[in-house]
Amino acid sequence: MSIPTLVPPTQAELAVPYLTPAGFKAYPTWLDLDNLVPGGVEALQTDELAEALLAASEWAIGACENMPLHGHWVQGETQRVRASGGGRVTVVPKHVPVRSVTALSWGGDPTCMYADSLPDSTMWFEDGRLMSFRPGGGFVQYQGPALQFGAQLRPQMPVWINWSYVAGYPNTVLSASCEAAASSVTVTDPTSILPGDVLRIYDVGDTSSTTGASEALTVASSYVPALPTIPPTATSIPLAAATQYAHDAAIGITGFPRKIIQSVICYTVALLMREDVSAEEPASGFGPAARTTAGHRGGQAGSLVNDAYEYLRPYAPVWRS
Prior knowledge:
The protein has 3 domains: 14-69 and 258-321, no CATH class; 72-140 and 149-167; 171-255. By secondary structure, the protein is α+β, with helices and mostly antiparallel strands. The protein has helices spanning 21-26, 42-63, 258-272, 299-312, and strands at 72-82, 89-91, 98-109, 112-115, 124-126, 130-133, 158-167, 171-173, 184-187, 198-201, 215-218, 235-238, 252-254. The strands form 4 sheets. It has a 4-stranded antiparallel beta sheet with strand order 1-7-3-4, with no helix packed on it. A 4-stranded antiparallel beta sheet has the order 8-13-10-11, with no helix packed on it.
């Protein structure tokens, strides 16, 4: 009996929540974040909040048909489509939004595929949810005698596509601290970060005017993304304008739309809700982080879960429709 070949994973497990504890604390909620674990020290409270945020992030992935919302590399996705009358092929990616294409092959027969030369000037993207291109339009055509390699591509005939691409929004943490007026930041995972991206740091401010406060950073046009790696490789990201504040290592930096972050916040708050037992015997000096309330659609926690679903609706994949 032959021993099967071990295949390395094409995607890493989610390790960074879609909102870090510092980012969650920077958002105004009514939660008592000092009492997530009754009597626990500050470090234990932060760990508990991080676990809840990671669970909420995993839930968001499941709510979008197990499609990661963070930047990730989709490798070797195959589809069968049809060429239009004008010879253009439209592909609906299974993971959205598509941020960049790293490889693409096509052919009129799955046993005879042609590698497209990238970048392909014929490629057209619509909101990261549709990609179309003209087969043969991205590389220099053979100018010699007429030769035929495999099935000839004709309008309306099936076209087999095999492609790899980067999808999802940047979401990572700083791998090293940075000072105010820094011209670059170093992140643990650069996947999906592109030149011109506006990335947001959610940090908790303090009494200093230059330390630890939320801000938006724009990636410099000089930045050249590399192919993703597993595990990711820490990368220095040049900025179009210097940072306004100093930030510690492990502070979150993200390109998520606000609605995705809001969804994670809603679900995290719902996870942290529990019944108030402060009046029960024996008496306890520790009440709940947030109190549940009876009411419409399963109470306050249930309403928050429904809100979380609604926030995610615009970002769900569309390939099955």
